[in-house]
Design brief:
It contains ten helices and five strands, in the order E-E-H-E-H-H-H-H-E-H-H-H-H-E-H. With 231 residues, the chain is an alpha/beta fold. Helix 1 packs parallel to helix 5 and helix 8 crosses helix 9.
């Protein structure tokens, strides 16, 4: 967990039992006024009402075929890994929402609309990135060399997350810009607004592991900009 002023930021793995426990314990311990989640309205309601599908075939026209395929691939991979460890994807977010209700905290959805994110990704992704992506999938299936061993029941270490993020930034710049960089900026602005709205109250924010440091840096930068304007 990273703490800055009244913000307590928890980095999680969406299929790790460790994350479910950490989120629940943090919310019960700090009794926050707000629990902020790395979700938009669409994903939040899909998570709380699992019978409803998150995205449908007719949504291809809205997000583009490439964005739609990336979403399906990511959703399938997360679900498969979730079955291996026995934890459905997004369980820590659901637990955060349920625990927020117990302590009577408000829930804030700080992430960007998934439809807009996928639409931008579909427009930006290059043929080179798509080719590299297919090659890496094939390579991962047939090659056993240089594979990283990860304990899926725990949140990956910061060093490993940093290494993987750097690889994504280098090999898939369009993906990195759309899925990581721009969403970090969007979430940081929302968190900054919440922090200033609830200056006397604690905010517990639950985000995917790897977002924390960048979010804190962006919030600090936003704070400095506002301090200069007020001088």
């Amino acid at each position: 967990m990273k703490v800055y002023k009244n913000l307590h930021l928890i980095g999680t793995s969406h299929i790790a039992l460790q994350s479910i426990q950490e989120v629940e314990q943090a919310i019960l311990k700090h009794n926050p006024k707000i629990v902020a989640l790395e979700l938009d309205r669409r994903r939040f309601f899909a998570l709380m009402q699992p019978a409803k599908r998150r995205i449908r075939l007719q949504d291809i026209r809205k997000v583009g075929i490439k964005g739609f395929l990336f979403y399906l691939l990511g959703f399938w991979a997360e679900k498969k890994l979730g079955r291996i460890v026995g934890v459905p994807p997004g369980s820590e977010m659901k637990k955060a929402a349920e625990t927020a209700a117990k302590v009577k905290a408000d829930i804030a959805l700080i992430d960007e609309d998934i439809e807009q994110v996928l639409k931008r990704l579909s427009k930006r992704i290059t043929w080179r990135e798509k080719g590299r992506f297919v090659k890496e999938i094939i390579k991962s299936i047939f090659s056993t060399r240089n594979k990283i061993k990860i304990d899926l029941t725990k949140v990956p270490e910061e060093k490993l997350i940093k290494k993987l993020t750097a690889k994504v930034k280098k090999d898939y710049p369009s993906f990195y810009k759309t899925i990581i960089e721009e969403r970090n900026i969007f979430m940081a602005k929302n968190l900054y607004k919440l922090m200033n709205r609830e200056k006397e109250g604690i905010i517990v924010a639950v985000v995917g592991a790897g977002h924390e440091k960048e979010l804190i840096d962006l919030i600090k930068h936003e704070n400095k900009l506002h301090e200069k304007r007020d001088m």
